[in-house]
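Hey, I was hoping to borrow your eyes for a little while. I've dropped the whole record in just underneath, so have a look:

——
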Amino acid sequence: MGNSTFSKQQTATAIAILFHAVGLAGILVFKSDWVIQSTSFNLLLSMALLFWTQEDKNIFFWLFAVATILTGIAVEIIGVNTGLLFGNYAYGDVLGIQWKRVPLIIGVNWFIVIFCSGIAITALLQKITKPIDDTAAEPSAVIKAISVITDGATLAVAFDWLIEPVAIKLGFWKWEENDVPLYNYVCWFVISLLLMTLFRMSPFQKKNKFAIHLLLIQVMFFLILRTFLP
């Protein structure tokens, strides 16, 4: 079983690398609008690969996924139509089908960011909080939970900060003041805290190597675009 799981993780990672590499080439080299328009497909593919590589998927995993997707869409609808969340912004037509001025695929993006951040932080904290020897005390369950929730939310906000300039240049969305307001990140952090709390408290397996690989792939993808996109 270990070999099949490893193979599945490798396959998913290779697929993700391939599609993100094609995306980079299409955007930076060939200046292809078609590649930009295919962003929704890339997000759906990434989510499908996360589902495929997640072991022991129980009802709580699916409830978390649905709740995160629906919450992401809901907060964006509030934000776009009222300005009460994030600030004054509007979506372009790049991300596909919209409802109440919000592309439905944005809920998938929220799931990917929250899930991958939660998995990555969980794995990191397990490494750094592991007792050095048998006499050392482990952090309490409460401390572990708070660490995952706050650090995971911080990572999610950092990822949003990374992609903002790229998303604006590619026409995903635009801000009324042109500059991204600090309030956007405050809202991202608060909402991410709530979703990370749901992530932490939901009793499903929190190990998925591909989720960590996908997060790293996306970070590199947007770092390269942020650096070289005119």
